[in-house]
Specification:
The structure is a single chain. It contains 2 helices and 5 strands. The chain is α/β, with parallel strands linked by helices and 89 residues long.
Length: 89
């Protein structure tokens, strides 16, 4: 599976847990995956750093799924895969 795009929606910061939370929408060649992601970073972290941390959490979750766990290179990210935040309409 090659991930072509990361989008993050419903971004929130939980002051109680001191973490950012977002729904990660990952687009691949054959499907779309939606995961609840989190990152323990400061409230004022730059967006690029936050996107990278949320993407890493999404990848961590996918790699633990039974269908991808046994194959080391089953989950790949395209070099040009954008990491974007959805804008509320």
């Amino acid at each position: 599976m090659i991930i072509r795009q990361f989008r993050f929606d419903d971004l929130r910061f939980s002051s109680d847990a001191e973490e950012h939370r977002a729904i990660a929408i990952l687009t691949t060649d054959i499907s779309t995956l939606c995961l609840m992601t989190s990152a323990k970073l400061q409230p004022d972290v730059p967006p690029a750093s936050l996107a990278e941390a949320l993407a890493e959490d999404a990848l961590r979750q996918i790699r633990r799924m039974p269908e991808y766990r046994r194959q080391a290179d089953a989950v790949q990210v395209a070099e040009d895969a954008p990491k974007e935040f959805q804008r509320a309409s």
